[in-house]
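Listing 4. Sequential folding, example run.
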Amino acid sequence: MATKPEPEHYAVRHSDALAYMTSDSPSGFLVESEIAMLGRLGRGRSRKARILGRIAAVLLLLPILLGIVLQVLQMI
């Protein structure tokens, strides 16, 4: 069975993480990894620590999410 070739950015992401994160091309993988961080914060600790960790993560993600919304609104 033939496989689809991997996109160029996929190889860059796995070979040199720093170059990938600081590259000029925007990537959805960065936002996905930031959102995945929400589920890992405070794991194994008390309920209060998990809730506070998730609130902190949301506050850290807020500028990214607002930037995305503003860009979408500018395109409309």
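-- end of first protein; second protein begins --
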Amino acid sequence: MDSFITGGSFSGKPDDSYLAEGYAVVSSGNPDCPYLVQKQEQVADTETTIVAEVAKPNVKDSELSGLSQDDVAAVTDAAESTAVSADVMQQESASALEDVKRDSSIVEDAVKDLNAQDHISGVEAENVTLYVQTYLDITPTDYDTENKTLALDITPMSRVVASTASESEDVVLEGDTDDGQKVNAVIVGTPKELNITVPVEMTLELPSDFVSDSTTAYVVHTKANGKQYVYTGTISGNTFTFTNPNGFSEFIVYAEDPAAARVYAEGESEYNAPGVGYMTLQDAVNAVKDGGTIVVKENGKATVSDSKSFTVVEENDALAELAPGSRYRMEATDNGDGSVTYTFTYRGSSPSSSEDSVGTPLPVVDNGGQTSTFLSDTYDDLTVNGRYQFRITSLDGSKPVMTVSSANFTVSLASQSGSDYFYVLTCAGAPGSTAIVYINGVYFLTATVGGASDGVISDTTAPFTVSEGGTYQFRLTAAERPAFAAGSPSFTVEYAGNEGNDWFFKVHAVGKAGDGCGFYINGASAPVAVATIA
């Protein structure tokens, strides 16, 4: 019978007599079909044969101190069984071969390194076969039998192995010797890390006591930058299979779902889809798309700075605390089935001013900041030195109610004028402490207790605008008259008298539209507020 095999993967090793001339059997990297028939090539300008293959993992146990011998054996076996999509690894080795075969100097290095071995001599180029191998460098870092977790640090690599053995399965490197085998191969040069970015299927054999009757396990993949991904995989027998689309680094296998939250696309739920797991609620919130659902499994907090709507389901008594980012508005709708739908919308512009006010009320914004039932003169998070007054304008005739989340501030309704309600926020906590401000029970902004400038409290700390030629008045509260100055010639400052410990200063916009100016108390290095001429 003529030799006819010119390629393909096989579960059993094909007999050499069936191989077409110039073909060899190498390792495929596929546990189900470990043998690959491949055409032999020659290194340029030499008689040295070169082939590409996928080698077995290189497993290190240096991180396994403190484990029993049985546990070390179990985790080492799991690591040694780890495999990545064979076609991807084969493509990487074939690509590396193309680079190596053009460099005849590598043959000189290979011959020199082989002849340097104690029991090898007289090797010539025609006696050497170069194996361009891709493989996984794996360091098991932890194995917890009680909590059922297994941690592996995995890096895909490539290397060139030179051997006097003409068949892949006969190659013996130092450290691989067994049953009196002699070393007949060396690694030429320095192994290189592979940059694999395509999705790959990964498999490994889990320790026998890792899972019982479960058909599912989970992986937390932590990248070098700290970003984490959660994958869901399937178990058949002891073989665990999952898809990894995010390169290589540390992988921790969990018997139980470790995700703090899972995200489902619109139309999906935990009953018809696995979802995508995330280790923090913030990561889940960042990932969820409009119309999607987040199932929250652990307590978490997140800020949403995107215009979108999604549903939150809390499981296992978990609590999800959501807040809108700066200039975003949040609406929450209880669906009556244990879920809440949150809608976040962008609110737009920052504060602008009226033409002339005496200390309070603060500047008023245009309708770019409109909500469903009210307008406010302030929308951004702010730092309060002493106290701060809001003007809340009702749009539907109802009284808006302002409350705070903690004792770091007190809030009181100072006055009402038509549809305008003036609420005063007063510091009660230590500098740096915070409270959430709610209007009608809905998150509005976060206030931080500031530090007064040399004991001076200003009624104005937020940025504001003044019309060209217009005037704005500050009220500064202090035991004695403070110094108050403009930071640019676009504004002038006029002392306007006092009432007890309240000192009034008028600032006049004398510059042109677009000019900005900071205002300083007692020569402070930072302005208490900044104004822009409109």
